[in-house]
Amino acid sequence: MQTTGDQHLVKKINKTIVLEAIKKESPLSRAQLSEMTGLNKGTVSTLVSELIEEKLVYEIGLGRSSGGRKPVMLLFNKTAGYAIGVDLGVRYLLAVLTDLDGKIVSERQVELERSEAGYVLPVLANTVRSLADAAPDSPYGVVGVGIGVAGIVDDKGTVLFAPNLEWRQVELQRLLAEELELPVTIGNEANAGALGEMQYGAGQEASDLVYLSVGTGIGAGIVVGGRILPGTGGFAGEIGHTTIEQNGRKCSCGNKGCWEQYASEKALLEAAKPLGVERLGKLVELAESGSTEAIRLFHEVGESLGLGIANIVNTLNPDLILIGNQMTRAEPWIRSSIERVVTSRSLPFHRKQAQIRFASLDTHSTVLGSAYDAISAFFSKDRISL
Ligand SMILES: [Zn+2]
Questions:
Q1: May I ask the CATH class of domain 204-360?
Q2: Where are the domains of the chain?
Q3: CA of 113 to the centre of ligand 1 (A)
Q4: Which InterPro entries match (predicted)?
Q5: pLDDT tens digits, one per residue of 278-300
Q6: Considering the domain 2-76, what is its CATH architecture?
Q7: For 31-76, what is each residue's pLDDT tens digit?
Q8: Secondary-structure class of domain 80-193+366-380 per CATH
Q9: What's the 250 CA to ligand 1 centre distance in angstroms?
Q10: Which of 16, 179, 250, 316 has its CA 20 to 30 A from that of 66?
Q11: How far apart are CA 134 and CA 129, in angstroms?
């Protein structure tokens, strides 16, 4: 019956509103919840009882009274379950186990010797299993696994094309869900990074922000009005493959002159080869010890980054640009050249409104965003995501 369906939906929406309020604002009393949500006290009471029964909310001591009986306060049960977030990079795999509030409980980092799916998938599955084994006992156990991949992912969790991993048509969601027997969500790593910074990091106050994942390649998670801009197919943000040199260097995507051929970690390490340096950490060490050659390379890559960032500032008029992923480690050496180029190349009104910062979760924006994705999927199963 239509009416029943609607009532069911209204209840789901109200329950989500109550849980969200407790998650964000607790400790709260039932009366405060009623005031805050506009729901009447009876409805709040019923919904809270259900949430307590579901072990997602619990009661603590007595709050401050405004006269009369002292109210019982409600808290979100962050440890009712755990989530696993994964950042699948080109040469590494970073994975974390978090509670339902994104607090990291355990972490694994694995170097990947090769990038083909047949090699990576078993390593990924084993890493997730070892983290799941490390999860403390809880009512819901591990509620899901979120994975951020540096590539184009469709809504079924298939990696259509990941140029730097050299993957095409890898059914990552299906393969892993079967293997792990856990709910799996797959997303683009830059979108996951944006999500991580919005939920837990430097992007909590921003409504129009661009998270730039600068690693082997460059991807962007574009947030407009507080929501990730997906594009028609969900593929928006492949900003590393915008052309900045008409007849420039060849790119793994098939085009030439792509931004990431000049401004990524890979481009930086390519330029550092004559110094005998193969890793970003080593180049940072050299710069710290005063190597003018290393410092010059950082300045160059910072200038190239600044070029693309100026384009973003002019195109999207964001209030915040966050530079994330591996390149956050180079902040002291690239910040000034980025700022100089953005200042000279972006329009004055746009520039004034755009803050340029480095991701506050450092190299963990994507893992935390991916874990958040898995947590959201768990809560939206019989609730509604707001
Ligand atoms: Zn390209």
A1: alpha beta
A2: 2-76, 80-193+366-380, 204-360
A3: 23
A4: ATPase_NBD (IPR043129), ROK (IPR000600), ROK_cs (IPR049874), WH-like_DNA-bd_sf (IPR036388), WH_DNA-bd_sf (IPR036390)
A5: 999 999 999 999 999 999 999 99
A6: Orthogonal Bundle (1.10)
A7: 999 999 999 999 999 999 999 999 999 998 776 666 666 789 999 9
A8: alpha beta
A9: 8
A10: 16
A11: 9
